[in-house]
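Quick one - inputs below.
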Amino acid sequence: MRLPTLSTLALYMGLLATGCTTAVPVKAPDVLLHGDESFTLTERQECVQWAADKWYQQTQGLADLQVVWDVDSGDVKSLKAHQSDNRLLKLSSTSPMTVEQDKESYEDCMDGLHDDGACKTIKLMGITSPSGGIKSPVHTVLKQNLTVGLVTDRFTDIHVCRLVTLHEFGHVFGIPHQDHITSIMFPSVVEGQSECMKPEDLMAFCYANDCGAVQMKPCKEDQVLLDWEKSFSEGG
Ligand SMILES: [Zn+2]
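Output:
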């Protein structure tokens, strides 16, 4: 019996590799965001790029978002030029979009018969519009031009910036809000939340985008928050 030569081995391996086509996932569309030049270098690298990388890693490359920093939000011409692009804007607490959203949140909150004081504390940290939330294996949200806004002067530190950016990118990938307090897609920033997507977030990602056989990489849920949630639901 003759041992196979190197070239035939390579051929066998090639056949094996190309013969296996059942597990090819449908990839979520690549997203290109045109970023506001007024984001600081730290915000760009330690928060925005960091969050894009995190999504990429935890979905094994399915959630693929890139930012080019070429929007001058102080210049009407530049804003107009990127009108039909996906944009990432730096908002402040006094930006018209922020003020309008704060007002809406306040009214929604009061409609739920909450008290004035508590409702006044609900402040916009980030926004993605038109909002994500489709429940379809065919992802359509990204065909529209999206605006992601981050209210950076409300971020007390880089940790909050990361939580908010991970959350908004989740909307970019078509994910609606989730109920679990440990989830990145929970509607509020929660103290003690770790900077990564939990099982519920990635399940929702695969619901909005076809993940095929790709294994998602959720991180562990935050035990402190789980305990708190449990004691809260038990009324303790
Ligand atoms: Zn949200």
